[in-house]
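TA notes, week 10

Several of you asked for a full example with nothing omitted. So below is the full record: structure tokens for the whole chain, then the designed sequence directly under it. When grading your own attempts, check the secondary structure regions first.
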């Protein structure tokens, strides 16, 4: 059984056109392959106040946008466009490069309202960093969910309670949005070779300590609290399953993915393996060949 080995708190930063996000500290220490976990909001906008992320480039990784409240519109340099509504998922593989914008929908901008969601960056292995860009958009009405014994889950990627996602991931990824009622319990199975973590954004959950053959105290969270609360990211030990208990209504994400064990060269919206590759990305962006 997996245990908590570290608790990482969050802080507020501004991104894009000035919207607030809640982000775990020391993201460079978050386990591979996750590069960024941004909780957008929740924030209440008045009419004309909502902001987004104007045109910007990406290369070498994937962005996962998951909307809980609000309405957004996106478009890119390849002529693609669409919108995101509550419960919708956009899994964008930037690969060799794309330029896009993510802005509040015109109707939401007029009316205002609550905006809340997530954007998560997933690193790509070196052999896939220059793959062709692609989108996978899953609307809320076809996004797989399950509810039983006080546990509700939307399976964005991976598997939970016998339900599997339809997202085609480049590398094995688990991304599950879970709501748990007071007194409920979830046993989530995970491949033992995946790094895993839990990000709580409402309530708190308890992770009973695991047992196994490793003796290092950090391997099983000895000396580390086994409760993850609102605004905290819990890094988990090795194991093939997690027991999650909730004494209050709680809401969180379960994330898991493989250790890529490759060098990371990162600057702004580009994530590559070498400094030279980052310089090439800037050159391609400036001369207009990135995203075409």
């Amino acid at each position: 059984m997996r245990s908590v080995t570290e608790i990482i708190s969050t802080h507020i930063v501004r991104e894009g056109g000035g919207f607030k996000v809640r982000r775990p500290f020391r993201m460079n220490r978050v386990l591979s392959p996750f590069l960024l976990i941004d909780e957008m909001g929740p924030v209440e906008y008045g009419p004309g106040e909502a902001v987004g992320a104007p045109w910007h480039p990406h290369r070498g990784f994937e962005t996962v946008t998951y909307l809980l409240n609000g309405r957004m519109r996106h478009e890119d340099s390849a002529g693609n466009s669409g919108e995101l509504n509550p419960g919708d998922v956009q899994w964008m593989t930037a690969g060799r490069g794309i330029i896009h914008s993510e802005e509040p929908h015109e109707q939401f901008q007029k009316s205002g309202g609550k905006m809340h969601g997530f954007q998560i960056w997933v690193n790509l292995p070196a052999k896939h960093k220059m793959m062709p860009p692609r989108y996978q958009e899953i609307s809320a009405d076809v996004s797989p969910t399950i509810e039983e014994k006080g546990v509700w889950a939307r399976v964005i990627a991976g598997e939970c309670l016998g339900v599997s996602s339809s997202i085609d991931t480049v590398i094995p990824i688990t991304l599950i949005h879970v709501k748990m009622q007071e007194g409920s319990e979830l046993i989530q199975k995970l491949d033992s070779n995946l790094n895993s973590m839990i990000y709580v954004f409402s309530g708190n959950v308890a992770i009973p300590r695991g047992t196994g053959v490793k003796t290092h105290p950090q391997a099983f969270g000895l000396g580390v609290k086994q409760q993850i609360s609102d605004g905290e990211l819990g890094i988990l030990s090795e194991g093939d399953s997690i027991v999650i208990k909730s004494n209050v209504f709680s809401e969180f994400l379960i994330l898991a993915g493989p250790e890529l064990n490759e060098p990371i060269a990162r600057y702004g919206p580009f994530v590559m393996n070498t400094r030279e590759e980052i310089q090439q990305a800037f050159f391609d962006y400036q001369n207009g060949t990135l995203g075409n």
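The helical segments are 106-111, 275-286. Use that as a sanity check on your answer.
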